[in-house]
């Protein structure tokens, strides 16, 4: 997932990432500051920092740390589900003008270790093959975890659908019984009324 978004000074922006259990998540970000005079975003925003918070599906704070104007954060999920990743600048009026815009570039990788190409080039061919093979094996494990997680979600969705269908069926039966009871009561009331008026 690679994206960028605009944020105000000290404004918190959050994204939701659906992550399987025991999965490494790595995030890279870079902050750019809007320059009023040049009317463009500057390539860097020195002095700014980003406060990164990660919350689990059970509302447990997994990561809460202050980073620089660009950096990398990572965490490992302890449970499956939607993790909330929030970023907030720690800018002050000494660093940027109040209400100024920030552009945040964010790249999130789920279940993946980044290959350090400089390390790979430094190794001989055999070690390079081993290194890439380990990376591929890790990717296979991640795909397997993703598939298991999708199966779990599909099973939960199926159970919810079955429960909903069952509830709808019972509600329809109850409505039918109520309508029949009201109909019988109305017929009896009309019959009693006609008898009392000696119309029958």
Automatic annotation (TrEMBL):
It is found in: Endoplasmic reticulum membrane; Membrane. One of its GO terms (cellular component) is endoplasmic reticulum membrane. It holds the Pfam family EMP24_GP25L. Its main location: endoplasmic reticulum. Keywords: Endoplasmic reticulum, Membrane, Signal, Transmembrane, Transmembrane helix. The keyword Signal applies. This is TMD11 protein. It comes from Dromas ardeola. The lineage of its organism: Eukaryota, Metazoa, Chordata, Craniata, Vertebrata. The gene is Tmed11.
């Amino acid at each position: 997932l690679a994206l960028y978004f605009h944020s105000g000074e000290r404004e918190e922006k959050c994204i939701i990432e659906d992550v399987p259990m025991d999965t490494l998540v790595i995030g890279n970000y870079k902050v750019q500051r809007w320059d009023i005079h040049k009317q463009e975003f500057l390539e860097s925003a020195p002095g700014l920092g980003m406060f990164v918070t990660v919350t689990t599906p059970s509302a447990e704070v997994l990561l809460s740390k202050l980073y620089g104007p660009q950096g990398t954060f990572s965490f490992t999920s302890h449970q499956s589900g939607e993790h909330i990743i929030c970023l907030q600048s720690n800018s002050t009026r000494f660093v940027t003008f109040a209400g100024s815009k920030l552009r945040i570039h964010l790249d999130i990788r789920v279940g993946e270790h980044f290959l350090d190409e400089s390390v790979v080039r430094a190794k001989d061919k055999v070690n390079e093959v081993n290194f890439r093979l380990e990376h591929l094996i890790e990717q296979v494990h991640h795909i397997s975890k993703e598939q298991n997680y999708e199966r779990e979600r599909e099973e939960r969705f199926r159970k919810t659908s079955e429960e909903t269908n069952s509830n709808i069926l019972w509600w329809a039966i109850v409505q039918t019984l109520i309508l029949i009871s009201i109909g019988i009561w109305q017929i009896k009331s009309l019959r009693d009324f006609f008898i009392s008026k000696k119309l029958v």
